[in-house]
TrEMBL record, chain A:
<dbReference type="InterPro" id="IPR017941">
    <property type="entry name" value="Rieske_2Fe-2S"/>
</dbReference>
<keyword id="KW-0411">Iron-sulfur</keyword>
<keyword id="KW-0560">Oxidoreductase</keyword>
<dbReference type="GO" id="GO:0004497">
    <property type="term" value="F:monooxygenase activity"/>
</dbReference>
<dbReference type="GO" id="GO:0016705">
    <property type="term" value="F:oxidoreductase activity, acting on paired donors, with incorporation or reduction of molecular oxygen"/>
</dbReference>
<dbReference type="GO" id="GO:0046872">
    <property type="term" value="F:metal ion binding"/>
</dbReference>
<keyword id="KW-0001">2Fe-2S</keyword>
<keyword id="KW-0479">Metal-binding</keyword>
<dbReference type="Pfam" id="PF00355">
    <property type="entry name" value="Rieske"/>
</dbReference>
UniProtKB/TrEMBL annotation, chain B:
<feature type="domain" description="FAD/NAD(P)-binding">
    <location>
        <begin position="3"/>
        <end position="213"/>
    </location>
</feature>
<dbReference type="InterPro" id="IPR016156">
    <property type="entry name" value="FAD/NAD-linked_Rdtase_dimer_sf"/>
</dbReference>
<feature type="domain" description="FAD/NAD(P)-binding">
    <location>
        <begin position="265"/>
        <end position="349"/>
    </location>
</feature>
<dbReference type="GO" id="GO:0016651">
    <property type="term" value="F:oxidoreductase activity, acting on NAD(P)H"/>
</dbReference>
<dbReference type="InterPro" id="IPR028202">
    <property type="entry name" value="Reductase_C"/>
</dbReference>
<feature type="domain" description="Reductase C-terminal">
    <location>
        <begin position="374"/>
        <end position="439"/>
    </location>
</feature>
<keyword id="KW-0285">Flavoprotein</keyword>
<dbReference type="InterPro" id="IPR036188">
    <property type="entry name" value="FAD/NAD-bd_sf"/>
</dbReference>
<dbReference type="Pfam" id="PF07992">
    <property type="entry name" value="Pyr_redox_2"/>
</dbReference>
Length: 115, 452
């Protein structure tokens, strides 16, 4: 379990990027839920924490694929693969992440380690 | 409607097929594509794919398990359309009849007359183009890019990264002026100089020089007919680039270069001859002077063809049961009040959904208002993003960051109303502006700013 940020640093409607390898994005939805997914779009190197949060979906800031924060699934091209989801724990005003043990779907370039 | 043929199997055609199935069309669906490849993503062809960071498999637009229940006719080129029974004629002598037709035949790269017979001269539009260019981008070679539009700039960036010596030539005084305005066009174009790429503006290319003809330019220049406007190329556009205004570009101009015709055979290009008699030595040349819509095959079939297939705001053409999408289509734009082609990737992704509604409803359902046109470009490791329409006379204000730092967001305003946004390496802030620009096109600027 990794400490990510103070809960106060993640207001509703906002995102927080956790600089682990690979990076993880945390989202606090307008409904008050907190979700964690891989930060890097599975299509190309873009930070989903920079994307547009709407309901339980985030839209990639570059090419507009949308990922479901609950399942990691992508709804529209150009991305084809889901992002991983990570379990979130909030304790004593701190947001923690339990990283997934699945292999990540990183985009080409990142995957090859050449970006 | 029991059968639909989609002519064109790239992003717009595939998106149309998906939209038709998504909207409940269960009839016979045929996709016709000139290229033998399954649908692939073109933007990386000048960037990650050209750089070797993406494979051909990575370019695939279809998911592994995707099945549209369609019949694919790949490697077949549409040569005509018979409107009497909506029959698409193919170059293999067969034809496909359908109750509805989606025209999605895209655009082709404009070429420089005289370059065709020379080795090392490229355009970049297709996967095959990209493969050929990639094999020519060898470290230490000299690359001349003709046209400083988005394709040219991206290839220059990629080639520089691969260790080539790169020069970009642009006829216009300022690159990107049409898309970004002169002020910001100059800012984005200055990225070339930042990274050791020479940029020569305000000079046309008269022709290309081939092996065995020498580079002194004297004998070549003697053979060149010099006429005003001939040989001028306009590079301020690219597939992800620019909205076209009808009549703004005259391809006729470049067709009149006579003396610069290249020798046939395996001769390689050795240089580019400029209008001011300068010669740029070159081992490789990339011609990035825009694209023309692939609509010749529709001639005589009742369509209005004016720089693309003229369509209404929902994609309907003048021929019943035929809609058009993507780079070949000039939709009516309610925000601008005229028809124009949009060569943006996002247009090819989103508009087919509206066109599918039009086709399936017989035009009875009005389309949603279009979202603001958006495009991006990656150059020299920078994320360049633009949304909206810029026009001459708009005021441009840097709202965040600093132009000198190559990290900023600039807002274009017309009568104090924000109409477009450009950003370099300001992805997060740009996303907010983009959504706001879409959501509240008629609000005042002060309202908009207070919400950001």
């Amino acid at each position: 379990m990794i400490p990510a940020c103070p809960l106060a640093a993640l207001p509703r409607g906002e995102a927080y990027r956790l600089d682990v390898e690979p990076p993880i994005a945390l989202f606090h939805t307008e409904d008050g839920e907190i979700y964690a997914i891989d930060d890097t779009c599975t299509h190309q190197d873009a930070s989903l924490a920079d994307g547009w949060l709407e309901g339980c979906e985030v839209e990639c800031p570059l090419h507009a694929s949308r990922f479901d924060l609950r399942t990691g699934r992508v709804d529209a091209p150009p991305a084809k693969l889901p992002v991983r989801t990570h379990r979130v724990v909030v304790e004593d005003g701190t947001v923690y992440v339990v990283p997934s043990e699945e292999p990540p779907n990183l985009p080409p370039g990142i995957r090859a380690g050449t970006a | 409607m029991r059968s639909i043929a989609v002519v064109g199997a790239s992003l717009a055609g595939l998106s149309a097929a998906r939209a038709l199935r998504g909207q409940g069309f269960e009839g016979r669906l045929t996709l016709i594509g000139t290229e033998s490849h399954r649908p692939y993503d073109r933007p990386p062809l000048s960037k990650e794919f050209l750089a070797g960071r993406m494979s051909e498999a990575d370019l695939a637009l279809e998911a592994d398990d995707e099945d549209l229940g369609a019949e694919w006719r790949l490697g077949a080129t549409a040569t005509g359309l018979d409107p009497s029974d909506r029959r698409v004629l193919l170059d293999d002598g067969t034809s496909v009849r359908a109750d509805g037709i989606v025209v999605a035949t895209g655009a082709s790269a404009r070429t420089l007359p005289g370059g065709g017979g020379l080795g090392g001269v490229h355009t970049l539009r297709s996967l095959d183009d990209a493969r050929a260019l990639r094999s020519d981008l060898v470290k230490g070679r000299r690359l001349v890019v003709i046209g400083a539009g988005f394709i040219g700039a991206e290839v220059a960036s990629t080639a520089r990264d691969l260790g080539l010596d790169v020069t970009v030539v642009e006829t216009a005084p300022t690159p990107f002026a049409g898309a970004l305005g002169a002020e910001m066009g100059a800012v984005v174009a200055s990225l070339h100089g930042d990274h050791g790429v020479r940029l020569i503006c305000g000079v046309g290319v008269r022709g290309l020089l081939g092996a065995g003809r020498g580079l002194a330019g004297t004998d070549r220049a003697d053979g060149v007919q010099r006429s005003e406007g001939a040989g001028r190329v306009d590079g301020a556009s690219g597939p992800e680039g620019v909205d076209r205004v009808e009549g703004a570009r005259a391809p006729e101009g470049v067709d009149r270069v006579e003396g610069a015709r290249a020798p046939e055979g395996a001769d390689r290009v050795e240089g580019a001859l400029l209008d001011d008699d300068r010669i740029l030595p070159a081992d490789v040349v990339l011609v990035g002077i825009g694209a023309r819509p692939n609509v010749e095959w529709l001639a005589g079939a009742g369509f209005q063809l004016t720089n693309g297939v003229v369509c209404d705001a929902g994609g309907a053409t003048g021929v019943p049961g035929v809609v058009a999408v993507g780079d070949c289509a000039a939709w009516f734009d309610p925000a601008m009040g005229y028809h124009h082609r949009v060569e943006h990737w996002t247009g090819a992704l989103r508009r087919p959904a509206a066109a599918a509604v039009t086709l399936l409803s017989g035009g009875a359902t009005a389309p949603d208002p279009p979202s603001s046109p958006y495009f991006w470009s990656d150059q020299y490791g920078m994320k360049i993003q633009f949304v909206g329409h810029a026009r001459p006379g708009d005021t441009v204000t840097v709202e965040e960051g600093d132009v000198a730092d190559r990290s900023f967001l600039a807002v274009y305003r017309r009568q104090d109303r924000p109409v477009a946004v450009l950003s370099l390496n300001q992805v997060r802030l740009f996303t907010r502006w983009r959504r706001r620009l879409d959501a509240v096109p008629n609000r005042t600027d002060s309202t908009l700013r207070s919400e950001l």
